[in-house]
Amino acid sequence: xxxxxxxxxxxxxxxxxxxxxxxxxxxxxxxxxxxxxxxxxxxxxxxxxxxxxxxxxxxxxxxxxxxxxxxxxxxxxxxxxxxxxxxxxxxxxxxxxxxxxxxxxxxxxxxxxxxxxxxxxxxxxxxxxxxxxxxxxxxxxxxxxxxxxxxxxxxxxxxxxxxxxxxxxxxxxxxxxxxxxxxxxxxxxxxxxxxxxxxxxxxxxxxxxxxxxxxxxxxxxxxxxxxxxxxxxxxxxxxxxxxxxxxxxxxxxxxxxxxxxxxxxxxxxxxxxxxxxxxxxxxxxxxxxxxxxxxxxxxxxxxxxxxxxxxxxxxxxxxxxxxxxxxxxxxxxxxxxxxxxxxxxxxxxxxxxxxxxxxxxxxxxxxxxxxxxx
Length: 374
Ligand code: SF4
Prior knowledge:
Elements (H helix, E strand, L loop, with lengths): L13 E3 H10 L1 H8 L9 H21 L10 H17 L7 H22 L3 E13 L7 H4 L5 E13 H7 L4 H8 L9 E7 L11 H4 L5 H14 L7 E6 L7 H13 L12 H8 L11 H8 E5 L2 H28 L13 H5 L14
Parallel strand pairs: 1-3, 4-5
Antiparallel strand pairs: 2-3, 3-4, 5-6
Helix pairs in contact: 1-2, 1-14, 3-4, 3-5, 4-5, 10-14
Bound molecules: iron/sulfur cluster (SF4).
């Protein structure tokens, strides 16, 4: 008697939105070394700054939500204790900052974020660090190595929603909240029970740094793409958020270089840059700002306006964002298969050397054929 053998089913690959898809879109080869060979990502101060600022804000929100700390504003000692704790955690992951000026900028950014954004946002947060996931079909790409290899038909995409706001709380506590005003300016009317997805970025608003590493990811706007994919993943578990909001934390304490670029944009009235009203005190402060002078203190309302970027969640925008994620997952799979076939890493993985800053900070630059800085 012969016994039939059950057919082996290919296992579904799982991709993290941040660790896999987003990093692959920045550079496939760098992703390969960091993710599979566990080479540290980079030793850039920007990596430290981003993790430090976002982690400090996240820990502060957690402590307030669990009643371990009062609602902000906090005094410098309390903030300094929090920063020391986060610095120690990052050191354990070998993420350190050797630049004293960068450390000071990080501390300044965290202080303003906790004391100005915290009182506004913390009471509205319904849930934070929400794990989300969803299953996606691989798009069919003809005549690739991946299709020849009988790759699985779909994959699991995972992510973490940094914060979720619920509308009822917003109505009760913040009728005049700048965030609510920003939503209304995009004609987003909130109904009872709807949610707002919030993503935090330690950077300036991208209208000031077009052509940077951010812009090189996922086409022209990585932040919008990421927020939309997170919205879809959230919808697989609860409901689609009414909107996504990306909060650019560095806009709360802008650097002198960012203010210079803002002044320049104001002088030529650059269309895509969010500028103060021409007759406002902020416009006058920017106009009078001279190189080498102390940077002006722009109004809290204008800084918050630049910090909050509302992204409407529409079916068309979701579809475009998901297509980018699907194709990136397919390309990762293709590169993996090519490496398995050829036994070569350098020729199997895509490389993206469009951002000199990213290449300069890359740990694989010493042997990468595309590194131009030698
Ligand atoms: S040096 Fe540039 S192109 Fe080469 S792996 Fe690093 S980021 Fe990619």
